[in-house]
Design a protein that fits this description.
- By secondary structure, the chain is mostly helical.
- It has one domain.
- About 60% of the residues lie in helices and about 5% in strands.
- The chain has helices at about 5-15, 25-40, 45-70, 90-95, 110-120, 130-145, 155-170, 180-205, and strands spanning about 70-75, 80-85, 100.
- It has a three-stranded antiparallel sheet, covered by helices on one side.
- Strand 1 (about 70-75) and strand 2 (about 80-85) form a beta hairpin.
- Helix 3 crosses helix 5 (about 110-120), helix 3 packs across helix 6 (about 130-145) and helix 3 (about 45-70) packs parallel to helix 7 (about 155-170).
- The longest helix has 26 residues, at about 180-205.
């Protein structure tokens, strides 16, 4: 990716965070950016930034869901029902314990279940799909066992970072839904060209 200090900063700040993203999430994004920039001086920080990027995305998903919940939530499990006030730790502890929120039955503890519900409700656009969920799983693998994870390279980390920032923007800003960032468009076009070139090579070999 032609990583110089200047180009790395361009990659990091080339995709903007929406002003509608709450300050509490923006602060976490800013820390991720700092870690990526520091990786220019210490390659191992690319792996650390991947872990922090996942934690930031996880926080954004939970934060956005919390915004959607009523002030009092009815929970059910094994035929039991209880009412709890809208308190962050309580809600997500209950979800970990496999309670269901009445009116939000499709939501479980997993990020995938919450993201799928966001898509059903139109909170996320259709262009955010299984591929993005798989990328989150890839980052989660790094976050839960950073010692045993393979070292993250800038060529892998930077596109993941672009995807996550776009994902966070879409969570909070509907105007971002139809606007895929130019960096992601260019990346997809490059992959398409590369895939086409590989297919042409395969066809040439078969014809010989």
């Amino acid at each position: 990716m032609n990583i110089t200090e200047e180009y790395l900063a361009g990659y990091v700040f080339g995709i903007e965070l929406s002003r509608k993203v709450p300050a509490r999430i923006a602060v976490a994004v800013e820390m991720t950016r700092k870690i990526i920039l520091y990786a220019y001086y210490d390659y191992g920080f690319y792996t650390l930034s991947a872990a922090h990027l996942y934690l930031t995305a996880e926080s954004a998903v939970k934060d956005r869901l919390f915004d959607e919940l009523p002030d009092s939530c009815a929970l059910t499990k094994d035929g039991k029902t209880e009412m709890v006030s809208k308190e962050y730790q309580t809600i997500f502890q209950r979800l970990r314990e496999e309670w269901q929120i009445i009116g939000f039955e499709h939501i479980g503890h997993s990020l995938k279940s919450i993201i799928c519900w966001f898509k059903e409700q139109g909170i996320l656009p259709s262009r955010i799909g299984d591929r993005e969920i798989e990328l989150l799983n890839q980052l989660r693998t790094v976050a839960i066992d950073i010692v045993r994870s393979d070292p993250m390279s800038p060529g892998v980390l930077i596109p993941l970072y672009w995807k996550i920032i776009d994902f966070i923007n879409c969570l909070y800003d509907t105007s971002a839904h139809p606007k895929e960032p130019e960096m992601l468009k260019e990346l997809r076009e490059r992959y398409a060209m590369l895939s086409k070139a590989v297919e042409n090579i395969k066809k040439t070999k078969k014809s010989r």
